[in-house]
Amino acid sequence: MLKLLALLIAVACVSALDNGLARTPPMGWLSWQRFRCNIDCKNDPKNCISERLYMDMADRMAADGYKEAGYEYVNIDDCWALKERDPKTLQLVPDPVRFPSGMKKLADYVHSKGLKLGTYGDMGIYTCGGYPGSKFTMETDARTFSEWGIDSFKMDGCYSTTADFPTAYPIMEFYLNKTGRPILFSCSWPAYMQTKDINYPLIAEKCNIWRNYDDIADSWDSVKTIIKFYGDNKGNFSAVAGPGNFNDPDMIIVGNRGLSYSEEQAQMALWAMMAAPLFISSDLRSISNESRDLLLHKGVIAINQDKLGIMGQRVFAVSNIQVWTRPVLPAGSYALAILNENDGGSGTTVKFYLSNLAISSKSSFKLTEIFQGKDMGVFNSTTEFAIDVDVSSVFFGKLTPVS
Ligand SMILES: *[C@@H]1O[C@H](CO)[C@@H](O)[C@H](O)[C@H]1NC(C)=O
Ligand SMILES: *[C@@H]1O[C@H](CO)[C@@H](O)[C@H](O)[C@H]1NC(C)=O
Ligand SMILES: *[C@@H]1O[C@H](CO)[C@@H](O)[C@H](O)[C@H]1NC(C)=O
Ligand SMILES: *[C@@H]1O[C@H](CO)[C@@H](O)[C@H](O)[C@H]1NC(C)=O
């Protein structure tokens, strides 16, 4: 098993995008899910897409523990630009009413907090919200972002054809690289294709992270649908994940209105299993202490940020119970998530053996529950696990070999 893992990591190193970024899944904040394309700063100055919003979030990230926990990128999404490029330079222009200081100043501000600034665009003619896309201006846009001090670029795929993706995304990667500034590249490439002949090794060679599937919405149904897609793993995209390159199941909605606390725990646990980017999209100015503490949970983040960077996989699913495992450090350890998606009754006792987890190791494992740090005992190949998992809840633990 270890040999195989070493081999997978070696393979990933040969072919993966090498800009030194995203060695573990990137963490930060992203405006889209909570703030969408709200450009009405006149009536809703606090929540509209504006420099104030991103400065507020940078302030909260720096002051409320997020930065210390590893959250780093403050990411702008759609609707920040004017609808027309500068007629002379063809550069994108931030809306001067909503971003009166300009992007360079905003980047300086975010950097002064010890954080990084990400922005958004599109490989087609327009962004999904109808703002100018980069189709004919990739070199200019890459240079502009670099001059502004941008640290991450999410390139969406609206108003284009998927047939163009395998050439267009690599061209943008080429120009980003040419700027000499390390800019994390987030691609929406497979999201628009979903299961059709996707060249995942090529995507991993050109992108740091990539959205495979639909946008998340503020609901448990949405979270479950996403977890199913990543558990199905059609196209074997889990195999190309590793340091520098991660599948992106979309934003963390903890702190919004759609999830109960146990469902928020489930999202955090499953995103950790998937080695997923952690981009929070909720209002950090008004988030509950309970949700904030969950976002900052050291044990959850440690699994998410495990240095091996291996994406966990669903090992079995039966009667709305699914079990995921993910190899993590120290060598021979696993993270374990048991998700109960039933929506009636008072929970299920899930029973299984190590062999059901596709763990063939002869060692004994100590199991520690992660949220409470509870010691669950020692298990080996002949002992049966019996773990209670309530409805709409997750059991999240770590199996560490004991000698
Ligand atoms: C550009 O690509 C080369 C080769 O992969 C890499 O060594 C370098 O770090 C990249 N530079 C940037 C700024 O991404
Ligand atoms: C997925 O890819 C890995 C690594 O290339 C390979 O070992 C494995 O057999 C593949 N699995 C499937 C189901 O194709
Ligand atoms: C929430 O946390 C803050 C700071 O950590 C603390 O001052 C405040 O009292 C807490 N609020 C509640 C309702 O516990
Ligand atoms: C597994 O653990 C049980 C209970 O602790 C113990 O009796 C048994 O000898 C162990 N089996 C192996 C193969 O270590």
From TrEMBL:
Keywords: Disulfide bond, Glycoprotein, Glycosidase, Hydrolase, Lipid metabolism, Lysosome, Signal
Protein's cellular compartments: Lysosome
Family: Belongs to the glycosyl hydrolase 27 family.
Stretch forming the signal peptide: 1-16
Domain spans labelled Alpha galactosidase A C-terminal: 309-390
Superkingdom of origin: Eukaryota
Enzyme class: hydrolase
Database matches in CDD domains: GH27 (cd14792)
E.C. designation(s): 3.2.1.-
Subunit structure, interactors included: Homodimer.
Lineage: Eukaryota, Metazoa, Spiralia, Lophotrochozoa, Mollusca
Sequence intervals crossing the membrane: none
Name by which UniProt lists this protein: Alpha-galactosidase
